[in-house]
Design brief:
Strand order of the largest sheet: 4-3-2-1-5-6
Bound molecules: zinc ion
Number of helices: 10
Low-confidence stretches: none
Radius of gyration: 23 Å
CATH superfamily of the largest domain: Creatinase/methionine aminopeptidase superfamily
Order of helices and strands: HEHEEHEHEHEHHHEEEEEEHHEEEEEEEE
Helix content: 25-40%
Largest sheet: 6 strands, mixed
Mean pLDDT: 96
Distance between the termini: 49 Å
Length: 366
């Protein structure tokens, strides 16, 4: 759909006008994809304030670029970004805005040598544009979430004593691919027993045991868009402290989801959940932010964390994922991906709906 990408480039031009730059040089590959539709490991895009955009990529992607982006002038060049910097000057640019948050010092020197123009920081202008999603993007995220939930539902029968974290990670990863995922959104986390205290535990050879809480954090990737979901389940009859911990995190997650409405301050959404955890005496056991935006990147703006300024808007997909981690004992995290909505029946749609486990209730497996 070339039109949607042309529309996005026009929105970038509007942002460029406020910077007083003559052109934007886009080198973040995810941003290039957002503005052109081309997924490539070597590409750059020049968007002049006036005139047509120019895409550069190497010969491996030339055919795809011609097919996906027929409306763009294409340069087939291995040194995509320096060639475009030079072209910007040739075409009269005096100030070229570049993505200073992702260009290395080494590449910056090469750009300066090629451009002879003044380089000005563009900042995260494209990332800002990416926060609010269009209907097509929301549909792809919803599909990725649905694949993830289906894979979870189809896999949990495999959670049995003796199965290792690594083995179960493969089971759920295969189920995501079978259900239609192009790829995995990130490395699956399976954290059992005491490992549950490590938020980003790498699955290892520990076998599941009766009495474990098991935290599974997984997501599918579908046509470039990500899903992110965490469930914590119990194997065998849980102890009272495990039930209490689960109940606390579930209540915090519900409070966070209910606070996620258009216009709410990001830090206040975090606080809605964090206050409950703090009141239960676990403030130091919840070290990460409440959630993050989801889209072409698994973690993207907006970030939901303590004191974060900025507000939620209509059509912003985010995660809500409180956790409490007790060193040496275990932990609980519950995460859903949802999209904040205005003008619909509910102020948000939860996209990661599992049949087998609702976040409100601890799922106990025999
Ligand atoms: Zn996650
Ligand atoms: Zn997440």
């Amino acid at each position: 759909m070339p039109e949607i990408h042309a529309l996005r480039r026009d929105r970038l031009r509007a942002a460029l006008a406020t910077l007083d730059a003559d052109a934007a040089l886009i080198t973040n590959l995810v941003n290039v994809r957002y503005l052109t539709g081309l997924a490539s490991s070597n590409a750059a895009l020049l968007v002049p304030a006036e005139g047509d955009a120019v895409l550069a990529t190497d010969s491996r992607y030339a055919l795809t670029a011609r097919r996906e982006c027929p409306d763009l002038e294409l340069l087939v060049e291995r040194m995509a970004e320096t060639v475009l910097a030079g072209l910007a000057v040739e075409r009269g640019a005096r100030w070229v805005a570049f993505e200073d948050h992702e260009v290395t010092v080494e590449r910056h020197a090469a750009l300066e040598a090629a451009a002879r123009a003044q380089l000005a920081p563009l900042g995260r202008a494209v990332e800002e544009l990416r926060i609010v999603k269009d209907d097509g993007e929301i549909a792809l995220i919803a599909r990725a979430c649905q694949i993830t939930a289906t894979a979870f539902d189809e896999s949990i029968a495999e959670i049995r004593p003796g199965v290792t974290e690594r083995e179960f990670a493969v089971v759920i990863e295969r189920a995501m691919i079978s259900a239609g995922a192009d790829k995995l959104a990130f490395d699956t986390i399976v954290a059992s027993g005491p490992h549950g205290a490590i938020p980003h535990h790498v699955p290892g050879d520990r076998p599941f045991e009766p009495g474990d809480l098991i935290t599974i954090d997984c997501g599918a990737k579908y046509r470039g868009y990500h899903a992110d979901m965490t469930r914590t389940v119990a194997l065998g009859t849980p102890a009272q402290w495990q039930r209490d911990l689960y109940g606390l995190v579930a209540a915090a997650q519900r409070a966070g989801i209910e606070a996620a409405v258009p216009g709410e301050v990001l830090g206040d959404v975090d606080m809605a959940a964090r206050d409950l955890i703090a009141a239960a005496g676990h403030v130091e056991h919840f070290g990460h932010g409440l959630g993050h935006g989801v889209g072409l990147d698994i973690h993207e703006a907006p970030m939901l964390g303590p004191g974060r300024p900025g507000k939620l808007a209509d059509r912003v997909p985010i995660t809500v994922e409180p956790g409490v981690y007790l060193p040496g004992r275990g932990g609980v995290r519950i995460e859903d991906t949802l999209v904040v909505r205005s003008g619909s029946s509910a102020p948000r749609d939860v996209l990661t709906m599992t049949r087998t486990s609702t976040p409100a209730e601890l799922l106990v497996l025999d």
